[in-house]
Write a structure and sequence with these properties.
With 272 residues, the protein is an alpha+beta fold. The chain is 54% helix and 15% strand. Strand 4 (45-46) and strand 5 (50-54) form a beta hairpin. The protein starts with a strand and ends with a helix.
Length: 272
């Protein structure tokens, strides 16, 4: 009788063993984490074709509890793998220009929208959402520029920045909770700024969890430096999606989401 084969996402489960196609980069990262004493990995085994580990049942807990465990596990991951890398003034200027251009683009975009629509006799629902919140939107984007300027002034005095191994695919499904926390799925992992994982986590779940609580918990384990917090604020501010040329219903939905995202970010950045 053949063993039963099941699929969970892009992995195979057979005889209570999880199989994933072998990837040397992932193998190297797992060995690196093991050497760093990151004790939140399944018992990985490697062969020529597959990376395997024993199937682990995920405890039935609330998503709020799981989000808290995930942010703590990410903080430990970043803390145990952090190091300082030299940064040049050209690198700093490149980051500054990139985010400044992004913020200025939307400042101009929303100003032009306001100037074009404000004198209309009648407004569609999607237009009212933006027009009634234009001052907040304008202040929000200018706040991003202010934080970016402050970050630039601080980091320009430094000759290195802190990097960590980031998961880069933050998802509740990638944390298994049993007798231990097990962080899985390292296909997108890379060394970069730890705040990128925080931004990815926030953008995916911003309307589901109390991120003030989550970010404060993160700070208790892997304390962010002032310049890191400033850049985190900038990235939270700019990481909204906005599309042109939607119909009225699509624009109304998009503008409602945008205003909600904006107000939630404002509450967070005022906490730090």
């Amino acid at each position: 009788m053949k063993s039963r084969l099941a699929y969970i996402g892009n992995v195979k489960v057979k005889n209570n063993e999880v199989y994933k196609k072998s990837n040397q980069k992932v193998i190297d990262l797992i060995n690196y984490l093991d050497n760093k004493g990151f004790n939140y990995l399944p018992n990985y085994r490697f062969n020529n074709d597959f990376i395997t580990y024993d199937y682990i049942d995920d405890l039935a807990i609330s998503n709020e509890e799981k989000a808290l465990e995930l942010i703590k596990t990410l903080a430990i991951l970043h803390h145990k793998t952090s190091y300082y890398k030299e940064i040049t003034q050209e690198d700093i200027r490149r980051i500054y220009d990139k985010y400044q251009n992004h913020l200025k683009y939307y400042l101009i975009y929303f100003k032009n929208y306001f100037d074009k629509k404000i004198d209309n006799e009648f407004y569609q629902p999607d237009e009212l959402l933006l027009l009634n919140n234009y001052t907040i939107i304008n202040d929000y984007l200018n706040l991003g520029l202010s934080y970016l300027e402050e970050w630039f002034n601080k980091v320009s005095k430094l000759n290195s920045v802190r990097l960590s191994l980031i998961h880069n695919n933050v998802n509740l499904e990638h944390l298994i909770i049993n007798q231990n926390n097990y962080l899985i799925s390292y296909d997108h992992a890379m060394f970069d700024l730890s705040i990128i994982d925080l931004v990815l986590f926030y953008v995916k779940y911003y309307d589901q969890f109390d991120f003030i609580k989550l970010f404060l918990e993160y700070q208790n384990i892997d304390h962010l430096e002032p310049e890191e917090i400033l850049l985190l604020k900038v990235l939270l501010i700019i990481n909204f999606k906005y599309e042109d040329d939607l119909d009225i219903l699509g624009n109304t939905k998009q503008n409602t989401i945008f205003i909600s995202y904006l107000n939630r970010v404002l509450k967070i950045i005022k906490t730090f």
